[in-house]
Structure formats: C-alpha cells, structure tokens
Amino acid sequence: MAASMDISENTVIYKLFCANNDGNYNTISHEELEIFAEKYVSQISGFLRRYIWQNDPFNLRIAEPGSFPHLEGVTTFEDNVEDEWFIVYLLFYLSERDRNLVIQIQDNDGEFLLIEAADSLPNWVDPDTSENRVFIYQGDLHIIPKSFSPEEGTTNRNGIPSLSDAVSIIRQFSSRTKASLGVQNAIKNRIKDYPMKIDEYKHRAHCYVPCAVAVILKEDPSILPHAVKAFYLRDPIDLKACRAMRYFAPETRVMTEITFTRCLYAQLSCQKYEPDKMTGWNLPSDKHPDRKAHELGMKLACGFEILASNAHKKMQVEDDDVEHDFSSDVRWKRFAKSLKDKGYFRDEVEGSKMYNTLLLQAKEFYLSSLKHGTSENVNPGIRVQKLLKTANANYEEMKEAEKTLRPPDDDNWMDITPEILDSMLDKMRNQPTEANIVKTLTGGLKSFMSSRSDIEGVEPTLCSQKKKKQKINFDPDAFTDAVNKILDFRIPNSDDDGSSSSMSGYSDDDDDDVTLGEGNQSKFNVSSKKKKALDDMQDYMDQMDRELAKTSIGCSFEKLPPTATMEEADIDLHSDINDEEDGFQPVDVDLTVLKNILESHSSQQGLPGPVSNLLSSLGLEVPDNLDS
C-alpha cells in the first residue's frame, strides 16, 4: 500500500480529523486544533498515567501546514505490539466521546485493522483498493465502499478518495460505510480487555539495584523502557561503560520492587550477560532464591549506566532543549488546569512530595506528547543525568523498606505448557468453517421455506425458536394426523395416453392377489394407495426435471456430480434405458441456492440489499469473504 511506504518499521501513525463549532473540518484553525489536542490527551490521561510504553508514548501534534487540517501522532512500538493495540483502544474511546471525530490509523503494514478482520472483509478489499477508505468513527470501524457514485464523493484517477472527501463521506453516509458485524467483532475482540489489560500485562519483580536507580525510577518510571532497551541493544562501546559503572556503583545496592511490562521483563530476564567481577558485582549461586533479583538488578543498572554515559557528551548541547519555560507557556497552563479538573493530582497538597512527582511526570508527558510530538526530542540519558543531580537517596531508609516488600509476581506465564497450547488450538478449531457456514445458510433457508405463512406473515423459523431454548412438547397423535394429511394428497389421472405414469394403479386395488382379514385388507388398501400416490408424484417431478434440463433455465442449475447421481437421486438401475441415455443429471438444490445467494450478496458490495435483508430476518449472516 502506498500510504504505508513512508512509515518506519514497527511504527503506527494516527490522524484525528476534528470539526470546529460549525461542523467544518476544512476551516478549523490552528488554535482550535491545539485545544482539541489538549482535550483528547486530558480525556485519556487516566489510562496514560498507568501505562508503560515500550518506546514512544501516545502523542498528538498539529499536522504540517498545507495538508488537510488534522492532529497527528507517531508511535514506535518496537517489540511490543500491545502498544499499537492500546492506541487503537484509545482512539475508539475518543471517537465514542467526540461524535464528530474521524480517525485514520495505519502502520508499516498499511491498514492493519483490516488484516485483523481479514476473514470477514468484502472480496473487493485489498491493499490497492482500501487506501483512504478505512476510518474509525463514533466507536465503529467504517469502510467506504468501492461503488460510491461521483456525486457522493470524488476520487483521483486511481480511484482513491482524498482525505477531505473521505471524511465527508463518513460523516454523511455513516450508515452505508459502517463495516459489517463480523469486521466490527474482529477488531473489538482484540481490544475488549482494555483498560483492564493495562494492569494484567504488568509484572512486579524484585530487583537488587543501586539505590540511585531505585530513586530515579520512583521519580520518573517512564525511563525504565529506555534502560531495558539500552541493555538489550548494547554494543562493545556500551560494555566499556558497564565495566566502569561510573554513575551507578554496585556497592549501594538495595532490594526494591520494580514494575515492568511483560515484554520488558522478558527482554531483560532472557538476556545472557556475565558482568566483570572486578566491577564489584557479586552474584549469588544459581540455586540461591535471590539469584533472579540480583541478575535483573545488575542488568537494569547496566542499562542506566549506558544511558547516562551516552548522554554525557550531549549534555551541554541539548541542555537548552530540556529546560522549557513552563511559566510562560499558555498551552501548558491550560493543559495543567485540565489535568487538575479531572483529578490527576489526586487531591495532593500543592508543593508536597507526591504533588511534585506527579507534576514532573505531567511536564515530561506534555513535552513528549504535545509540545514536541515524540519522546525522541527528550533524550532519556539526559533525563537520567539531571535526575541524578537532584536525587536524594537515603540508603538506610531503603534498606529498611526491604522488609516490607510484597512477594514478586510469578513469571510462569513465560512458559507455554501443553495445556495452554491445546487451549489456543481449540480456540482456532472452534472458529466457523466454510462448510459449517454453507450448512447453516442452506438449512436456514429450508427452515424458512417449511414455515407456516398466512396473511400476517411468516411464523418464527426454527432458528429463532431455538434461541428461546424452550422444551419441546411432542404430541404423537397430532404428529400422526399431520403425516396422514400429507399422505392423503391426491394427483389427478393424466389424460395423456402416452404417459409412462402408473396412475392407473389408483383404480386397480382389486388386482391385489392377497388374502387378508377384512380389517387388515382395508388398512393395506389405504397404505397401498398412499404409496402409489407418492410414487406417481415422484414420477411427475422426475419427468418435469428432464424437460427443464434441456432448456436455458435448466442449464443454469448446478447438477449433482455423476458419482453421486446414482446414490443421491436413488435412480433404479433397471429403469428404462432411455432415462440413462439422455445424459440427465439431477439438480443439486442446495448448491444452486447457495450459488445464487453468494452471487447476489457479492453484487451488493458490502451495502444493504435483498439477500442481506432476507438472511438477517432469519438470523443468518453471510461472511463477506466466503468464496462461491
């Protein structure tokens, strides 16, 4: 997809199209976009405060002048794809609260939301036809159909609508652009566990770290991913800094609790590293219960050392960029007031230790999410250096706090057991197959055709009756009467002397050369008549099929395969030889009906139509990608 060619690997870009007070997207001003950005970030600040990002946080900035006015964010999620889906959740959340907000999101794979819902997409959707057609609006995914007429929106020579036209189409024709239920479910099932998942995907671990590391992480937890990344991607030059440990000497280590994401914890714990013994790292034996805490603390301290060492040379150059004048920044004051109104500061007294910690985090977030656009502009190593200067580490107090630590979380989630694997496979097996879908469609139509109908309409079908889960009351006498009424059906004699029908058998009851009692004789005659009537009806139907088979209508029907003809049509091998020489093949009713349904459904191109309306009334749904 062309739109994804400029996006870096493992990076997601999201665009928010806002409307001003007049409902206009094209004339919204720069100041109005700033207010919208602060409003949106403030609305989701409660989620953002709890989340630990792998690399870049959620951020919003005003798009460059000259483009269709909108807010834009860029986040590199690297190895943790959950960051990307958390952003999807945030965007759906915002679109539910601002009913005029239209959102587009893509990553380096293009329309990754469509990839997630691939099993339910219309056949026409592919990377070449979906550009500028996929948006989030009012809490749902919308796909602009390919068949929109020129008066409903303009496209370029490649059939790609412009962003302004696409946003206008979504606003004006949202009932037609809303994606199918299957697509909606596929996306929302992926994000349904948020925001609970924020805490579920965290991992608390005991780490034996230099006290300065513990203080820095308490002041600014957002530095943790950068320290893990620095150690994870270390090179020979970084290892020189780890041998020196100039900033984080191991002699001041304390046991503390550190909260990771599962991805960060796995990255750190799975790294193999033997520290230089001359540095002062004295790790316990492998069987020691604190061995894991010592290893994690050593690796994390090395990551912080790498950050601080690499930032030392940049300290003087970039120091001016870090020192931001918040006192004269009107946007910051407006943003801080919004946070306060939403309870961000938790009723802490202004100037208290906790208040100052929250204020520092809010300023860092403001710089990374609103002022600069991405966290790359605030070097994490420089932040470490500056926090080192202001850190007030009380070694004795921290050693005393070790006694009150909670037990760490179990990390058995890193091991895939056979039972977990079987459970994952079972979930995949339980997904509906095409065979089951075909069976459901044809069965539902049969149920509908066999339902009772009167002037008020058709009575509820078996599908809807099953949903009521009522017990079946079976009346054998009523069932027998119903069957007898069916069997009493009569076919008039044919006037055609040349007919091969055996209808004359109706008047030949006396020819039965069997001696029976009077009662049994009566029952036998009735039974014989009924059997002959059914046989004659079948003869008429077979003859009609043979006559229609030679017409254009008959050629349009799907036929049973030759191997199945003898068995399924129950053809008598000793029947008239002319019946076998005429090349007649019985009609495959189920396949013919299914083919017509799929052809009609495909011609709708995702829009409402007769087939979707009929099937929805029966409680059925055709998957958009079911191949005929």
UniProtKB/TrEMBL annotation:
UniProt superkingdom: Eukaryota
Gene Ontology annotations for the cellular component aspect, listed alphabetically: nucleus
Biased composition (Polar residues): 518-527
Region (Disordered): 490-532
Entry protein name: Protein ecdysoneless homolog
Organism: Caerostris darwini
